[in-house]
Amino acid sequence: MTILRRLCGTAVVTALAGTGLIALTAAPAAAVSRAGIVSVAQSQLGNASRNHEDPAGSGCNYYTGYFRPWKPASGCPSSDGVQWRNSDWCADFSKYVWKNAGVPDAEVDETNGGVLTGWASSFKDYGTKHGTWHARSTGYAPQPGDAVVFDWDQSGDIDHVGIVKSSNASTVYTIEGNSGNRIKENSYSRTNIDIVGYSAPVGGEDGPPATPATDPSGTSDVRADFNGDGLDDVAAFYDYPGARTVLFVWSAKAGGGFNTPVSMWDSGAGNFEQPRAKAIAGDFNGDGLADVGTFYDYSGGRTGLWIWTAKAGGGFNAPVMSWDSGAGNFEQPRAKAVTGDFNGDGLADIGTFYDYPGGRTGLWTWTAKSGGGFNAPVMSWDSGAGNFEQPRAKAIAGDFNGDGLADVGTFYDYSGARTGLWIWTAKAGGGFNAPVMSWDSGAGNFEQPRAKAIAGDFNGDGLADVGTFYDYSGARTGLWIWTAKAGGGFNAPVMSWDSGAGNFEQPRVKAVTGDFNGDNMTDISTFYDYSGGRTGLWTWTAKAGGGFNAPVMSWDSGVGNWDQFRTKPV
User: What is the rounded CA–CA span in Å between residue 469 and residue 548?
Assistant: First the structure.
């Protein structure tokens, strides 16, 4: 998987040999905290004043200015007492993280013999010098706080470096500077040939093993960052008369809010009936950008899976049919779709709960292929006859137990105003465990038809939570959240927002989730239907530690310009 970015220093690995670099005479008394390294990296990721180039794409960045005052500064701003400077800066970012976490050598300036420099290759030199270098080919399990170095074209030159956030058996999760001109979280298969290897920080080599990783949004690599700027965006398929559909994107603004929607694809008249489409999103080809797709309903019991892959910088390629059920094999109206990295290979997969006659439901999974496309679907769970009525289920997906794999779940409607939250946890390597009821409302307490389900990491603890917009009488809506427990299960639901009577009609809402402001917590937006062909996009940003800020209207279509009922959010 190659994420498009400006190369970050292409010095040959051996370029620093023979320069007489000297080691520190003593290591710090206390071991380097790997969690501390990750914490510093995350703090910079969330620092909206410096986590990007300014102007965008200029090369001007805080971290080069922090270490290398001889680099050009023309057109660059200043902040926090530092004159920003223009250079490739992945190594400067990684050095800054290590320095501020107390890693030996990182505090020594390169002009005074410090081994770590503005070259990405210096991080391999560091590991080689201190005996903490681990080539990818050795099968080393990367640990939090390690530096990971890349050679994008396998030329023998080190092109890029980042910080390991965490890893599991198949995937390494990173925080990198100069990734799409900003600080960004990425993930890679541990067998990815672009990875050369890892340098462990001195003092941290014997630290705790890597913990399973989750995407900050709580959806295991399923995020809606369509343009690669590190912020999740909102997209929708809009239904025009004459069998014409347009794909619009509201790109997120740094610091919050959304830009005016832009048409990214137009089917043309007579080519695409939006009511026949069920929309999904995820990074299906592993390029670090979220793609969109639809299960499209053809006549004769035939369904096609169409994918629009995202282009670097924005926009989408022409859609491609990635799977065709063939006639008589798959009725799309019987499917409820979810997406997530179910097998831990770093690619978003697709699942559907499929409704069979006789109270039987099957969970089918399309695993993504490296480079694009999908494997043939496999039934990952079968309820058996009489055991599960799919029309009673509202489906969700996310890494609910923190093992780095996306799980699936449903709010299931029982008679007597009782609802159960059922979870299918993913198995390493593919498939799902038998479902477990993680919460039971009890009779008379929760009417599932009144709930619109969402999922995401709303409190920033690395676990996906679930929530619902619940419809009360009198035009009142409550936002209820079930926070996930470490190891599995959920805490009792808490009402995180109450509209009050007469203020918000839940049936007028279509909800989407994503980290729209870049703080590593999942926010919630809704397309709200006003009379007169007017739609408002309202956003609830998550608060650190839990809860949400008061909703803000992030976009207003104006009267007569947008019919929410013609909108299918992605």
Answer: 13
Please give the structure tokens belonging to residue 111. Answer: 């002009």
Helix (H), strand (E), coil (C) string for 218-263: CCCCCCCCCCCCCCCCEEEEEEECCCEEEEEEECECCCCCECCCEE
- Tokens 């799919």 sit on residue: 390
Residues β-bridged to residue 467: 454, 481
Can you list the pairs that 351-358 forms with residues at least 24 positions away whose Cβ atoms lie under 8 Å? 351/380, 351/397, 351/408, 352/295, 353/390, 353/393, 353/395, 353/410, 354/330, 354/390, 355/389, 355/390, 355/391, 358/385, 358/386
**CA atoms of 447 and 414, how far apart (whole Å):** 8
What six digits make up the tokens of 378? Answer: 């496999």
How far is the C-alpha of 28 from the C-alpha of 18, rounded, in Å?
26
Quick: pLDDT tens for 127-140.
Answer: 988 888 999 888 88
Q: Which residue in 539, 532, 480, 469 sits closest to 506, CA to CA?
A: 469
State in Å, rounded, how far the first CA of the chain is from the last one. 24
Asked if residue 386 has pLDDT above 90, the reply is yes
Confirm if 217 and 348 have CB atoms less than 8 A apart. Answer: no
To which residue do tokens 């198949």 refer? Answer: 170
Nearest C-alpha neighbor of 549 from the set 528, 570, 519:
519
**Spatial CA neighbour of 354 closest among 333, 370, 368:** 333
405 token code pair: 């794999």
Dihedral angle computed from the Cα positions of residues 10, 189, 378 and 214, in that order, rounded to the nearest 10 degrees: -120
- Answering whether pTM is above 0.70, one says no
Q: Distance (Å, rounded) from C-alpha 385 to C-alpha 399?
A: 28
Angle among Cα 511, 529, 550 to the nearest 5 degrees reads 55
CA atoms within a 13 Å half-sphere pointing along the CA-CB vector of 199: 28
For residues 158 and 116, the answer to whether their CB atoms sit within 8 Å is no
Angstrom CA distances, 47 to 76, 182, 568, stand at: 18, 11, 33
pLDDT in tens, 448-487: 999 999 999 999 998 999 999 999 999 999 999 999 998 8
Contact status, residue 359 vs residue 381, Cβ threshold 8 Å: no
Residue 345 zone, left/alpha/beta (φ > 0; ψ -120 to 50; rest): alpha
Q: How far apart are CA 309 and CA 567, in angstroms?
A: 20
- pLDDT tops 60 at residue 516: yes
Query: For residue 542, how far is the Cα from the chain centroid?
Result: 16
User: Are 237 and 245 spatial neighbours (Cβ–Cβ below 8 Å)?
Assistant: yes
What one-character DSSP code corresponds to residue 517? S
Strands 147-150 vs 160-167: parallel, antiparallel or unpaired: antiparallel
Question: How many Å is the Cα radius of gyration of the chain?
Answer: 24
Which of these, 482, 452, 437, lies nearest to 464 by C-alpha position? 482
283 DSSP assignment: -
Q: What's the CA gap between 497 and 526, in Å, rounded?
A: 14
Give the span between the Cα atoms of 237 and 530, in whole angstroms: 19
